[in-house]
Specification:
This protein is of the alpha/beta class and about 400 residues long. The chain contains 14 helices and 18 strands. The chain has a domain of about 210 residues: FAD/NAD(P)-binding domain (3-Layer(bba) Sandwich). The strands form four sheets. It has a seven-stranded mixed beta sheet, sandwiched between helices. A six-stranded mixed beta sheet has the order 7-2-1-11-18-17. α2 crosses α10 and α10 runs antiparallel to α11. About 40% of the residues are buried. It binds flavin-adenine dinucleotide.
Length: about 400
């Protein structure tokens, strides 16, 4: 059976799913809320089985040509002195495959845009949909007033998914709050910015990252922990960018290290973004002929470095299960959730201790942590572990022969 599929959202998950479904001969429409492809964002990781998915797409060579040449991660003190040095690796902050989000989205879009079975429509959203049991389809009402029917509707519309809200039981919990708030922006690269990520902790649960992805720009990430002022911070996340920038400047002005330079660049950047760091924990990813993939289903938070990896894997598994049960979409959707859940369960484990250790409150913990990490790095332990252990090692990527090239 060839299905007619509507994918809502042209991010990594939506474009990857379009790729696989079209390869299997299904007809796909992708609608994206933005008037054009949102090829934006900072640096993201592709790890473990996510790399194998790209390989099976036949896109590994293109991916390799677009990677950011980050060599590893340094933990530094307020004077910028390197106290612990990590290479690239499965468990390290710098993954083997680092890429700017925009480059990955563009690569996936370009691999699909001219396919005869795929149509992209920008500036369009789903207003509502009716799941029609008799017709075995969804009647979808769009934001431009049009309607159409689809065998399958997929929410690939990111962390704030509207499709998810529509299929979860009323009042169902959608997020696990971590009490973490993050902003990033770009500043001009200077001579002393290297191809190594620098990580600096400051008292008050504040963390700053500096990483350079090309010869002219450096990314700045400012992250802090605060689970006491949630209401005020939530309001700030909805405020105009100018107000948000003012808050971040005030919050980090006395953090030390290269803060003055970073703050000086915040007003001129075209790439400022801030958000609450959360995990999506939807109780169900499927209802009837509607399914969720990527961040819409299971955003694990940037803390894990696995959001893009799991979204690529999820797209492959959903398409694969549809090919495995070609005459029974309900069974395919059920199997998609059954196969993927164990991986997501493993990936989403972010305990309170991990958060506290990532964002310590006091200077003495920061100093102690730098000393311990420095000693472990001197012994070579983190890099050795990273060669043999992955954080998704228990889970095997299925093979779906019908999706092979
Ligand atoms: C602009 C942007 C920048 C990002 N930057 C970073 C970053 O710097 N670091 C990081 O770790 N992660 C970032 N992310 C998140 C990261 O891309 C995802 O965690 C991961 O790649 C999984 O992708 P996804 O396709 O599930 O979700 P997303 O990448 O969030 O893609 C969702 C897509 O759906 C679209 N959309 C949303 N609502 C609707 C709607 N109602 N109808 C139609 N389309 C809709 C969005 O515009 C977007 O194109 C960013 C996401 C976006 C959208």
């Amino acid at each position: 059976m060839k299905t007619k599929v509507l994918i809502c959202g042209a991010g990594c998950a939506g474009t990857a799913l379009a790729f696989w479904l079209a390869r299997a001969g299904h007809n796909v429409t992708v609608i994206e809320r933005s008037p054009s492809l949102r090829a934006l964002g900072a640096q993201i990781d592709i790890r473990n089985q996510g790399i194998e998915v790209i390989n099976r797409m036949g896109l590994l060579e293109i991916l390799l040509s677009k990677l950011v040449k980050e060599e590893g991660t340094h933990m530094v003190n307020s004077a910028g002195e390197v106290k612990a040095a990590f290479g690239k690796g499965n468990l390290n902050a710098t993954a083997e495959y680092e890429i700017m989000r925009g480059d990955l989205v563009k690569m996936l879009y370009e691999a699909t845009q001219d396919h005869e079975n795929i149509e992209y429509i920008f500036g369009k959203m789903v207003e509502s949909f009716d799941e029609r049991e008799n017709e075995n389809d969804n009647l979808v009402h769009f934001s431009d007033g049009s309607t159409d029917s689809f065998d399958l509707l997929v929410g690939a519309d990111g962390q704030g998914s509207r499709i998810r809200s529509a299929i979860l039981p009323p009042g169902g919990k959608e997020y696990r709050k971590l009490g973490i708030w993050a902003a990033y922006w770009f500043v001009p690269r200077i001579e002393t910015d290297t191809n190594t990520m620098s990580m600096y902790s400051s008292p008050g649960g504040r963390l700053m990252l500096r990483r350079s992805h090309n010869s002219t720009e450096t990314q700045v990430y400012c992250i802090f922990r605060d689970d006491e002022n949630t209401e005020q911070l939530n309001k700030l996340m909805r405020a105009p960018a100018e107000e948000q920038k003012k808050y971040w400047k005030q919050k980090f002005h006395d953090a030390g290290w290269e803060t003055d330079r970073f703050i000086a660049g915040i007003d001129d950047t075209a790439n400022f973004y801030c958000h609450e760091v959360v995990q999506v924990i939807a109780a169900n990813w499927v209802r009837g002929r509607v399914a969720l993939i990527g961040d819409a289903a299971h955003c694990p938070s940037p803390l894990t470095g696995l959001g893009t990896t799991t979204s690529l894997i999820g797209a492959y598994v959903l398409a694969g299960e549809i090919t495995r049960s070609p005459d029974d979409l309900a069974l395919a959707l059920k199997n998609y959730e059954r196969v993927l859940r164990p991986l997501i369960k493993e990936v989403q484990v972010v305990g309170p201790l991990r958060i506290k250790m990532a964002l310590p409150q006091s200077q003495w913990v920061i100093t102690l942590r730098l000393a311990i990490m420095g000693f472990l790095c001197w012994l070579g332990i983190p890099d050795l572990l990273s060669q043999y252990v992955t954080d998704t090692s228990e889970w095997q990527l299925p093979h779906y022969p019908a999706l092979d090239l």
